[in-house]
Amino acid sequence: MCSLQVHRCRSAEMYIGPGHPMKPHRLSITHSLVLHYGLYKKLQIYRPYRANFHDMTRFHTEEYIDFLNRVTPQNVQNFTKSLGQFNMADDCPVFDGLYDFCSMYTGASLEGAIKLNHNCCDVAINWSGGLHHAKKFEASGFCYVNDIVIAILEMLKYKPNIWGSCINVDLNPAKSSKHIFYVFCKIRPFPKFSSYMLPNMLW
Length: 203
Description:
- The chain is α/β, with parallel strands linked by helices.
- It has a single domain (4-201), classed as Arginase, Chain A, CATH 3.40.800.20.
- Helices cover 35% and strands 11% of the residues.
- The protein has seven helices and five strands; from the N terminus they run βαβααααβαβαβ.
- The strands form two sheets. The chain has a three-stranded parallel sheet, covered by helices on one side. Strands 4-5 form a two-stranded parallel sheet.
- α5 (98-117) runs parallel beside α6.
- The longest helix has 20 residues, at 98-117.
- The model is unreliable at 192-203 (pLDDT under 50).
């Protein structure tokens, strides 16, 4: 039987804004179902490591991550130029706790990769992860930090000869993750749905 590591992340407490299709509180609903169906008896549930600046700049540019760290709804007017530069549009707004949100879900995926590398588990699940549209230098499609790429970079660090597939169950392809995977030639993107679908249809 597989040893499952389920990451419970405080990112479920984040509120991105009224009318935004991404609702992090749904993570709490998922966790509640795990508890009420008794699945937790076969899982190890814990609060994960928080990714730091260095972790996130393993893929993203320092300028972009520094912006995420500094911008808030209170000072956003001071970053008018940067908002356009980093594609912080309607689907990727600035909200309270933005950097913490990125740190938590990215840290969960990164820790899952570390656990897998050290054979501490066979399967690692991060309910809050998979924000695979974020690009190296900008946000995209509800995604700010690409935890998928960062986790795979961690796995390749310890297992450079690993071959695998990245299965995308979103309703559209993750172009930014796909491009970085082609660099390594070992991770095969596998989109499940057709490219004309829009991400907001999933929510």
